[in-house]
Automatic annotation (TrEMBL):
InterPro entries: Glc/Gal-6P_isomerase (IPR006148), Glucosamine6P_isomerase (IPR004547), NagB/RpiA_transferase-like (IPR037171). It catalyses: alpha-D-glucosamine 6-phosphate + H2O = beta-D-fructose 6-phosphate + NH4(+). This is Glucosamine-6-phosphate deaminase. The active site is at D67, N136, H138, E143. It is an enzyme of class 3 (hydrolase).
């Protein structure tokens, strides 16, 4: 595991974008696993800027997103489909048919999870998987539990996650209670993993995830066992390392 500590959020975003850019340049038809949330936004801004300068070409890239709220339509401005198009897809030359997310409008959880897991496997898994880090150590929507979930599944969101996400909705009652997410096993099959974390409020969980014991109560701790993980934090998130 490699850990880089940037001075600030912008520096963290720049380092993360460097790593993703290198992946695209070295393998133009790579499969990128992508994440949502506030932390990766700066990374996506950097990638768009490099595309606009002519330094990056997304025309052969395929993407698979980590997760999606169950029950939200694609045009809902809180759906991850909407987020990804607003922050990245609408601003680069990635073909629409190469973009993949779980379908939050599919009510049959078993059917949708099997479809999405099968899709990821058919692509050979992600060449590089981008991750954020939840305050409770979740990656994707893999919440603290008694065991690591292996494959794509439908998860009941914990109250701490709902609380953290309610700022994006009109009220806490509007936050979906379930989501489709890649499983820990799906994430761990990615060839490379890149995790970003920023802010003082992430310092404690960063320390627990990457210097503490590997346990399903801190889902991100499993990344200690992956052969190619890069963690990029800003000074505040890395203050306890």
């Amino acid at each position: 595991m490699k850990i880089y500590k940037a001075d600030d959020y912008r520096g963290m975003s720049r380092i993360a974008a460097n790593i993703i850019s290198a992946q695209i340049i070295l393998k133009p038809d790579c499969v990128l696993g992508l994440a949502t949330g506030s932390t990766p936004i700066g990374t996506y801004e950097e990638l768009v800027e490099r595309y606009n300068k002519g330094d990056l070409d997304f025309s052969a890239v395929t993407t698979v997103n980590l997760d999606e709220y169950k029950g939200l339509t694609k045009d809902n401005d809180q759906s991850y489909y909407y987020f990804m198009h607003h922050n990245l897809f609408d601003h680069v030359n990635i073909p629409a048919e190469n973009i993949n997310l779980p379908d939050g409008t599919e009510p049959d959880s078993k059917k949708e999870c099997a479809r999405y897991e099968g899709l990821i496997r058919s692509l050979g898994g992600a060449d590089l998987q981008l991750l954020g880090l939840g305050h409770n150590g979740h990656i994707g929507f893999n919440e603290p539990a008694d065991a690591f979930d292996n494959e794509t599944h439908c998860v009941d969101l914990q109250e701490s996650t709902i609380e953290a996400n309610k700022r994006f909705f009109a009220s806490a009652d509007d936050v979906p209670r379930q989501a489709y997410t890649m499983g820990i096993g799906t994430i761990m099959r990615a060839k490379k993993i890149l995790l970003v974390a920023s802010g003082k409020d992430k310092a404690e969980i960063v320390k627990r995830a990457f210097t503490g014991p590997v346990c399903p109560q801190v889902p991100a701790s499993i990344l200690q066992l992956h052969p190619d993980v890069t963690v990029v934090v800003d000074a505040e998130a890395g203050s306890l390392l």
